[in-house]
Specification:
Number of strands: 7
Order of helices and strands: HHHEHEHEHEHHEHEHHEHHHHHHHHH
Oligomer: single chain
Largest sheet: 5 strands, parallel
CATH class of the largest domain: Alpha Beta
Radius of gyration: 27 Å
CATH architecture of the largest domain: 3-Layer(aba) Sandwich
CATH superfamily of the largest domain: P-loop containing nucleotide triphosphate hydrolases
Strand content: 5-15%
Strand order of the largest sheet: 2-3-4-1-5
Distance between the termini: 68 Å
Length: 425
């Protein structure tokens, strides 16, 4: 049998599907849709090997719909139109059983290819399920994105991956013929990078390489049979995530030498320059922020420049940006502030905005006090008038805490002078 272990173990039902409880668990956001057979067009976003394709297949099987699949790597507009024509014939208008069109790596589709999907999705000729490892906000056109729900699939944790290995040992028709004991899994999990498909493929390689009926899986045994080719950059596998992680952490750690090294690894591996620039843009705000606001400007200009210029010259612009960011003062104060603010919103719900700072566009709103006692800051000395801007239930809550650098220390002094001890600056 030549079918890989990962394919032999692919779940066929939700009962066999591991993880993603936030989507398909008892209270999952997709569970009722699947049970009722009312499936919206959607985009699955998450790292490779976490079950995006599998979940699309399960949804199609459970809802008993025709299932068509395309890979954005080797499909063009012509292929899309041919599949849509087939889908229209097998489904039809005004039916809840319209076919499902699954497109893997939809972020690789050009604008014209994505445009070719719009009418089919809007008219209901197909229910689109797209899978992507990239942020759909950047890679999927807004017109198509507005017609789809975006669902984030989380990376597998250690327990999920070990459960997959145990399932293979117990249930696979070939693996189960051997007496296999899982003694150590650290190296298996590390080499897989959280990719279930890769984990099972490595595991199968190790098992098939042993001639003995009785096998004890240890870290040493795995390393014996698997070449840890960390020098090679695989832009579709775990190296894609390992190297970008190393680049980001090197810049965060203010090491321009390591940063430009990992940048070179990605460029030599053929990584999309826009992907690199986009991550640098995020880092400029997340890890530098108000310690050096110019970092965001440079990162944004870098993204625009490499989008226009492309390879090979983009490497120079990316190098300038990466080394500048590495040498910049660091602060995650803005990042922490929005994290805390979002958590506070989740905990406290929709609190009432103070009447003083509400908008009063109508006569009725003015009569009931909207905007009363609002102090227009520019009418006061120093362009400042003290008001309570937060809802009563959370007043005096400090969410932004400036970092320990010259720019943010100046912000701290600015806030301290205006708010005195209100927020404890």
């Amino acid at each position: 049998m030549n079918t890989p272990l990962a394919e032999r173990l692919r779940p066929q039902t939700l009962d066999d599907y591991i993880s993603q409880n936030h989507l398909v668990g008892p209270e999952g956001s997709l569970t009722k849709h699947i049970q009722q057979g009312v499936i919206p067009s959607m985009i699955f976003w998450g790292p490779p090997g976490i079950g995006k394709t599998t979940l699309a297949n399960i949804i199609a099987n459970h809802s008993e719909r025709p299932f068509y699949t395309l890979s954005a790597i080797n499909s063009g507009v012509k292929d899309v139109r041919e599949v849509i024509d087939k889908a229209k014939k097998s489904g039809g208008l005004f039916t809840t059983k319209n076919p499902i069109l699954f497109i893997d790596e939809i972020h690789r589709f050009s604008k014209s290819q994505q445009d070719s999907l719009l009418q089919a999705v809007e008219k209901g000729w197909v229910t689109l399920i797209g899978a992507t490892t990239e942020n759909p906000s950047f890679e999927v056109i807004s017109a198509l994105l507005s017609r789809c729900q975006v669902y984030i699939l989380n990376a597998f944790n250690k327990n999920d991956l070990e459960s997959l290995l145990k399932r293979a040992i117990e249930k696979d028709e070939l693996i189960s013929q051997k007496n296999i004991k899982l003694k150590e899994t650290d190296v298996l999990l590390r080499l897989s990078g959280g990719d279930a498909r890769k984990l099972l493929n490595i595991f199968e390689l190790v098992v098939n390489s042993e001639t003995s009926y009785k096998i004890t899986i240890t870290n040493e045994l795995v390393l014996k049979h698997v070449q840890n080719n960390t020098v090679r950059y695989d832009k579709t596998g775990e190296q894609h995530y390992d190297i970008i992680s190393a680049l980001i952490k090197s810049i965060r750690g203010s090491d321009p030498n390591a940063a430009v090294y990992y940048l070179a690894r990605m460029i030599e591996g053929g990584e999309d320059v826009k992907f690199i620039a986009r991550r640098l843009l995020i880092l400029a705000s997340e890890d530098i922020g108000n310690a050096n606001p110019t970092a965001l400007v440079i990162a944004n200009n870098t993204f625009q420049a490499v989008s226009t210029i492309g390879n090979p010259e983009s490497r120079i612009i990316l190098s300038q940006c990466a080394t500048y960011l590495a040498c910049s003062p660091k602060s995650n104060a803005a990042y922490q502030a929005i994290n805390q603010a979002q958590q506070l919103v989740k905990e406290t719900g929709d609190l009432s905005v103070p009447l003083e700072i509400r908008n009063a566009p109508t006569k009725l709103m003015k009569e009931i006090g909207y905007g009363d006692n609002y102090k227009y800051a520019h009418n006061y000395e120093g362009n400042f008038a003290e008001l309570e801007f937060l809802p009563e239930e959370i007043k005096n809550t400090k969410l932004y805490n400036p970092g320990n650098n010259s720019r943010e220390q100046a912000q701290r002094e600015f806030l301290k002078k205006r708010w005195k001890e209100k927020y404890g600056y």
